Amino acid sequence: MDLVPALEEPLKQPLKSVLGPATAKVMAEHLGLHTLGDLLHHYPRRYEERGQLTHLADLPLDEHVTVVAQVADARLHSFASAKAPRGKGQRLEVTITDGSGRLQLVFFGHGVHKPHKELLPGTRAMFAGKVSVFNRRLQLAHPAYELLGGEGDGAEAAETWAGALIPLYPATAKLESWKIGKAVQTVLPSAQEATDPLPPSLREGRGLVSLPEALLKIHRPHTKADIADARARLKWDEAFVLQVALARRRHADAGLPAVARRPRPDGLLTAFDDRLPFTLTEGQRKVSAEIFDDLATEHPMHRLLQGEVGSGKTLVALRAMLAVVDAGGQAAMLAPTEVLAQQHHRSITEMMGDLAEGGMLGGTEHATKVVLLTGSMGAAARRQALLDLVTGEAGIVIGTHALIEDKVQFHDLGLVVVDEQHRFGVEQRDALRGKGKQPPHLLVMTATPIPRTVAMTVFGDLETSVLDQLPAGRSPIASHVVPAADKPHFLARAWERVREEAENGHQAYVVCPRIGDEEDTKKPSGKSPEDEAEKRPPLAVLDVAAQLAGGPLKGLKVEVLHGRMHPDDKDAVMRRFAAGETDVLVATTVIEVGVNVPNATVMVIMDADRFGVSQLHQLRGRVGRGSAPGLCLLVTEMPEATPARQRLTAVAATLDGFELSRIDLEQRREGDVLGQAQSGARTSLRVLAVIEDEDLIAEAREEATAVVTADPELTSLPGLRTALDALLDEEREQYLEKG
Questions:
Q1: Among 140, 88, 92, CA closest to 116
Q2: The whole model's pTM is what?
C-alpha cells in the first residue's frame, strides 16, 4: 500500500537471490503478488501457538487448510489394486489430534515412505491440504507437512519454542503457508524502506506504530500485543487511504457545474401529486425533500437511494424526474434488463395517466412524453424515440444500455436515475452522464440494503438516503425453509400450497438457478449427502416446469421465463402473468428486480442454498405486494448443520434487509466489499472488516475529508499520494467510480 520504488522491485527477477523463479511465478499467478511490497502486505490470516492446537472440530469441507496438530497414531496397510495386483499397494493412515477433534491423513504408493519414517506418534507438525470426505469422515489426502521440532535444550528453550506464534498465511495448493512465511522472512528487512502514508499528526494523535514497525510485528510477532498493535495500524492504512480516494472524488464532483432544476409551482409535479390515490409515507416525503434540495443546487447531485423491496423507490424517483421536466430538462432512467425497462415504462405511464401523453390527443397541458428505448425495438419505433429525445418532446426516457449508444442525443439531459447500480459498469454510467450539456444530476437506486459502513466504503462518493418503511396496503411475507432431502413430504406440501393459492385466484413464482438448455455438466460421484447436494447440477427452469406441469401442478397454467428468450417472448410472458392468465411462472432470477404483480402470493425458490442472502431477500420481495399475505418457501437439500442451511434459516427469520445484509457480510469470510474480482488480490481489503470496524471507518472518513479539504492535491503528503497510486490501479479506480 506504501509501495515506494524499493518495494516495487519485482519478485520474479533473481533480485538479491530473494525467491526462486518458480516460487515467484506461483505467487504472481495464484496470489496476485508481483512485487516485494505486495509480499510484505500479504498478511497472516491467523497465528498458531505451538503450545496449543487448532480446532480440528470445525474444518470447512473442500477448502485448503493449515492445521497444527500432534500425531496420535500411524498405521501402514497393504492392499491389492489394478496397479499393485499382488497385494503390494501401500496406504499409510495417520490420525492427528488437537484436543478438539481428530483428523485422518492418508498417503498412498511411493508417497508413504517419508511420512512413515517421520510422522511417529507424539510428533507435532503443521499439515496443509484440502479437506475431503471419505466414509463420512473428514480427511486430508497427501497433505504437505512441516515438522515442528524443539530448538535447543533445557526447559526454558522448550517454553520459548512452545509459546512462539506461527503465522499462517492465505495459501494455495501450489504454495503452502510455511513456504510463504519463509519468503516473507527473506524480504522482511526491506520493510524499513516503506514510506508511511499516514500524516504524522494523525499517527501520533491516535498512538499508532510506524508502518515499518507494523509490518515487522504482523509478520514476526513476539506477543499477541504485537499483533494487536500491527493490526490497529494497518487497518487505519486501509480505511484512511480508501476514504481519501473517495473524499477526493467528492471534492472533484462538488466543483463541477450543473444546472439547478427547481420545479414550477403549478407544473407537472403538482398535477401528478394531486392525482395520487394515496398519501406519501413519511420516509418518501423526507427523501424527496433531500433530493429536491440537491436538484436546486448548481453542482451535480450524487445521491444513493436505498430502499427495501417495495418501499416505493420508483415513486420517489419519478417525482424527481417530473421536477426536472418541470424545470425544462429531461430525465433518463437506466435499467439493467429489458424486462425491467419495460416494466418501469409500463408502471410509470400507468402512474402518470394522461400526464404521460404530451403532444397526443387527450394529453393535458402539463403532459410530457415518456418513451422506452431498448436494443430489441423495431427500427420505426426506435427512430421515433430518438427523435423525441433530441427535440425535447420526450421529457422522460426509460431504457437499457441502448441509451448509451452514440446515436442517442438529448435536448437537455438534467437527471440520470440508475436502477440497481451494481449491474452497471462505470463506463456506462459516465457515457450517459456525458450526454448532458453540463454534468446531469445523478440518483442511484438500490433495493439491496447496505449497512452504513459499507455504504461509506463502497458508495463513499454518494450521499445516502434510506427508505425503510413499507407503504400502507403491503402485506407481511411468511418465509419457511423446506428441507427436501430430510423431509420430502414438506416439498409435496409446498406444491399443495401453490395449488391452493391458484385455486383461490392467486399466482405463484417458482425460481430455479439454471435455465436447463446448457450442456450437461458432468455428474460426479459424491462421497456423502453434503457432497451430493453440492455437486449435483443446479435445478433448471425447463426441467422443473415440465415436471410440475405433468405432476404436482397438473391442470394449472405453467409458463417459463428466462434470459435467453427473445425479448418479445419475455414481454408477452410477463404481460400474461401480470394479467392473471398464467397461474405459475417458473423463472430464473430475471424476475429478481422490479417485477410487480400484486396478485402473486407464493414464491418457491428451488436450490435456495445456491443464492446469496441479498438475492433471496430481493426475490422474496416479489410476493406480498398486494392485499393478500405473501409466502416464500426456500427449498434446499443441504443437511441441517451446514452453513448454507444456517444462512437460509437466517433469511426465513427476518424481513429486515439491513439485518440480513449484516449477516451476509459476516458470513462471507473472504471477499473484499470492494469486489475481489473487480480489484485483484493485490488491492483487496486485508485487515479491515467493514462490519466490525464501523467506528474506525467513520473516523477515517472524517480525517480524510479534513485532509482533502485542506490539501486536495496532497502536495504536503507524498507518502499518502504514493499509497493512493498503489490502491487506485486502473481497475480499482473504475470500481470506485461504479460506487
A1: 92
A2: 0.65
